[in-house]
Structure formats: C-alpha cells, structure tokens
Design goal:
With 340 residues, the protein is an alpha/beta fold. It has helices spanning 6-20, 44-52, 60-77, 94-97, 131-136, 142-149, 155-161, 173-180, 188-196, 209-212, 214-220, 226-234, 239-248, 253-266, 271-288, 290-300, 318-321; strands spanning 28-30, 37-39, 83-87, 90-92, 106-110, 115-117, 166-167. 47% of the residues lie in helices and 7% in strands. The strands form 2 sheets. Strands 1-3-5-7 form a 4-stranded parallel β-sheet, with helices on both faces. A 3-stranded parallel β-sheet has the order 2-4-6. It comes from Oxalicibacterium faecigallinarum.
Length: 340
C-alpha cells in the first residue's frame, strides 16, 4: 500500500527540489492516494527479487534505491518550507522516513485510523530511513522500545511520543485542506493548530499505551545489551512485560541486537552521519542475508517461520554485531558523502 519504489523516491525528490526555489510554492502537503495507508514501507518484494537473483548488496538498482531514499530523507529533514504530512492509515518504515523530519517547519497530522510503526526487525532489517536518529531522540526509552519490538501504535501514542503534532478526525481532513489553501500569512502551523484544537479532547488518555507503561518501558529498555533487556522483561510478571517479551522473541535476534547498537550510536550523531551509518548497515544486511529470509517468511511464502541466524539472543556476540558498522566504502567514496 503506497510502498516506496525507486520511481516514487525519484519523483518525490525531484518535486521537492523544484518547489524549494519556486516562489509560487509556499508549503508542501503530502497525503495518501489510498484510503488505507499513507505509506506502508519500502518495496520489500523488489528487495527480495534482487537478492534472490544473486545480486544482493552489489545490485545497482538496490544500491540506487537506498542511496536515493536516504538522500530524500535528508532533504526533508532540511526542507526550507512548511512540510505538512497527513498520516491517515498505515504509516510504517519508508513512510516514517518521509515524514519524521527534524525541520521546525514539519507538521505531522494523525487521525483515528493512524497505525504507525518502525517494524523492520520483523523482517530481519533495522529501522533505517533515519530511524536511528528520530527514535534515539524520543523521550526516555520510547524509541528503543519501538525500534526493538516493531510495535504498532495509534494516534494517542504517536502524539505522546512526539512522532505527530496534532490529531484531526478523518472526516474533517477535507475542511483542513481547504483552509490551508487560503492561509494568507503563511503561518501554516498556527492554522493547523487552531483547526485541530477542538478535536484534541477526542483522544482519550486510556488509548495511550506508551504513557500508561512509560515507567516500565524506561526501566526495561535502558540496558545496552538485548540479553539484559530480555532478562529484565523475564523478571517482570506483568501482562505488558510478558507480551513485550513474547513479541521481542519473535524478531531476528541478530537484527534486534544491531538495532540497539544503532539507536545508542545515533543518539550523538547528526542526521547526515546517521544516514551514512545506516547506508553502510543496509548493505551489510543484504550481504548477511537475514533480511532476505525475513521477507521470504513474512511476505513471500508467508509461512511465518523465519529461520533466523543465529536463532537466539544468547547466541548473538559482539563479533556478529560489529560488521554491520564496519565501513563498506572509503570516506571519499561513500554514496552519501555529500550530505551535510
């Protein structure tokens, strides 16, 4: 559902670049063309097809996809005009990458149908597209929890986490878009905030799982190894901890461990450095093959039985994690070397 393809990435990038210098364009509004999703992620069928052809990380198209997608993410993080995203429906992976901008002009709107996640660990990948950056900058250990579990959250949790700015019910979106077309002072943030104000009471505190379990999340996910996190969850008999543990144990042990290292490293990085790190990581992922197996099990054969390597968290070593952060290119040859 609106999964990002290379053609889509190129179309978005070209349009955004042109609009940056077009004096007739005052703001950008990005919305969905389908009723069920904003963007459910990248084109994983394409990833699997290329990898199974024996090309893996060396495929020119695969290399181009991630290089150009991450360049697009960087552009959005530094966009010089208001960038308004209506996140109605499923918003995952690549969809998060084109909306979770750190630019002060970015405004994210959620609805009652928003289902948001960075679920890459489910397919043997990691939260890329700048995920290390925006997850590591969330309050407490919310980003660690979301990155390691791939948990899906709704509008209330997205607002609590800082992954969205305002709630607007889906039925009111056409009125909001009409109002944005008539903003004369170009203060789109103020116009959106004023429009959304009457609807904020429709978000019940009871819907916010992250707020309800915030202390538990911060306690269990504060460790710097996944083994410690697992032990902490095992020692907690509450339903939330046990459900979280059950979800965690279904993910790729290696990529959950790699993701924890990614989030910890990204905390002190710029968005450009984070994207460069992730560009290296994604190449290493396809070299290893964990993501190919994950896509096979969850999206191609759909047997829901991925054969992870290794199969347990106890078997993951520092020596297995380290290669994902080992430079794949010299600094002067890195495909994202021009990002600042």
């Amino acid at each position: 559902m609106n999964s990002l393809s290379l053609d889509m990435v190129r179309t978005l990038a070209a349009s955004l670049q042109d609009w940056q210098t077009d004096e007739n364009i005052h703001a950008v509004l990005i919305d969905s063309s389908t009723p069920k999703a904003f963007c459910a992620g990248g084109d994983i069928y394409f990833f699997h097809e290329v990898a199974c052809a024996g090309l893996q990380g060396g495929s020119a198209l695969l290399e181009d996809f991630f290089t150009e997608e991450y360049t697009l993410n960087h552009l959005i993080h530094h966009y010089n005009k208001p960038y308004i995203a209506i996140l109605d429906g499923i918003v995952m992976g690549g969809g998060m990458g084109i909306t979770q901008s750190s630019a002060p002009t970015c405004i994210r709107i959620v609805t009652e149908r928003t289902r948001m996640a960075m679920p890459e660990v489910k397919i043997g990948l990691f939260p890329d597209v700048g995920g290390g950056y925006f997850l590591s900058h969330l309050s407490g250990e919310i980003g660690t929890y979301l990155g390691l579990t791939g948990e899906i959250i709704g509008a209330a949790d997205a607002l609590h986490a800082g992954l969205a700015h305002v709630f607007v019910p889906r039925k009111a979106l056409p009125d909001l878009v009409r109002i944005l077309g008539s903003v004369s002072d170009r203060d789109y943030a103020a116009a959106i905030t004023a429009f959304a104000a009457p609807y904020q009471t429709q978000i019940s505190p009871d819907e916010c799982v992250l707020a309800k379990h915030r202390a538990d999340i911060d306690r269990h996910f504060s460790y710097d190894t996944v083994e410690e996190i697992v032990r902490s969850l095992q020692a907690d008999a509450t339903p939330f901890a046990q459900k979280t543990l059950e979800n965690l144990l279904q993910r790729s042990p290696l990529m959950v461990s790699v993701t924890l290292e990614q989030i910890r490293r990204a905390k002190t990085m710029s968005i450009a450095d984070c994207l460069r790190m992730e560009r290296t990581m994604v190449r290493r992922c396809f070299e290893h093959g964990e993501v190919v197996e994950g896509i096979r099990a969850l999206a191609i054969d759909k047997d829901q039985q991925p054969q992870w390597r290794p199969a347990s968290f106890e078997a993951v070593t520092k020596e297995m994690i380290a290669p994902f952060f080992t430079a794949a290119w010299s600094d002067y040859a890195h495909p994202l070397r021009m990002l600042a």
